[in-house]
Input
Amino acid sequence: MGKTYLRHRTLGDRRERDLSNHNPQGKGFDPSLPHQLLYTYSMADWDEIELALKVSKSKEYSWRQASIEERSHLLTQAAQKLRESQEDLIGMMIGDGGKTPYKSDPEISEAIDFAEY
Output
């Protein structure tokens, strides 16, 4: 099994943190079949939360200084990633939240629209 990494990228800055030894602690169950495990995930500990907050705060100034064009480009990329994952996101909303495709699709589309606006 390969290593799992926590990755973050902000305005060209790339860092990785090895999470190979970080055991999954959270579990997601199907709301219609409460004993059916859908997925597991790693829950952040307080040090990881602190790191995420520090990284976010440290990049606040550079985001503020980024040109409108650069911000627009990054948000357009985010919208494209959402669009590429739309079917998977709808599936997660159905499986995890018990939503219907009829309710899920407009929510994802709205998130894409907000990112592109």
User: Anything to note?
Assistant: Residues 30 and 36 are 6 Å apart (CA to CA). The beta strands are 5-10, 13-18, 26-30, 33-41. The longest strand covers residues 33-41. The chain has five helices and four strands.
